[in-house]
Amino acid sequence: MHADGSEVEVEVEVRRSRRRTQTVSAYRRDGKVIVMIPDRFTRAEEAEWVTTMLQRLDKSEQRRRRTDEQLMRRSRELCRDYLHDKVRPTSVRWVGNMTTRWASCTTSTGEIRLSDRLQTLPAWVVDYVLLHELAHLIEPGHSKRFWHWVDRYPRSERAQGYLEGLAHAIAMDLAPCEEPAEN
Questions:
Q1: Residue-wise burial string across 9-36, b where 16 or more C-beta atoms lie within 10 A, e elsewhere
Q2: 121 assigned to some structural domain
Q3: Is residue 182 part of a domain?
Q4: In what order do the strands lie in the sheet with 25-29?
Q5: Residue pLDDT, tens place only, 49-68
Q6: Phi/psi class of residue 31: alpha, beta or left (left: φ > 0; alpha: ψ in -120 to 50)?
Q7: How many Å apart are CA 167 and CA 161, to the nearest integer?
Q8: 98 & 165 share domain
Q9: Residue 25, by phi and psi: left (phi above 0), alpha (psi -120 to 50) or beta?
């Protein structure tokens, strides 16, 4: 939905499968929604399921997205829990123009920006990225001291692997193995 209340046009690709007999699923890829349906569905059933799955996907994504205010609140919690309250960011926000990084931090101003590509990822991965940037407010570079702070996060190594795998899959243009919204 646009700021003026008008609907955003979404490109939908419907994939029919003879092996798929009961389930319908949908996921986003490369700016469009892929809806997978059984081959036996009529055009009317297809249209009905596309509408249903778009609504489910939007609802699921809305639940996962944190607002800028929620990011700021979460950053304070992460500072308290992992950084001994040594730092306070001045702002934490989502940005849509970050294409080569997951996030960035301006240490001189305390501003943290997270790529909006992270919005649909699991919260523990977003927390890791946020903590990584917060640690830069203590230690600007990627020194041993910096990693000491980041590695206090229990899922640090797992989140790094998740992001590395995701970056690799994006570079290879792979479809997700898992289809998040199912009937």
A1: eeeeebeeeeebeeebbbbeeeeebbbb
A2: yes
A3: no
A4: 11-17, 32-38, 25-29, 181-182
A5: 999 999 888 877 666 678 88
A6: left
A7: 10
A8: yes
A9: beta
pTM listed for this prediction: 0.65
Tokens of 122: 């699991």
DSSP symbol at 118? G
CA distance 105 to 66: 18
Longest dimension (CA), the chain: 61
17's tokens? 């499968």
Overall number of domains in the chain: 2
Boundaries of domain holding 46: 11-64
d(CA 105, CA 103): 7
Question: pLDDT tens across 89-127, in order?
Answer: 999 999 988 888 999 999 999 999 999 889 888 899 999
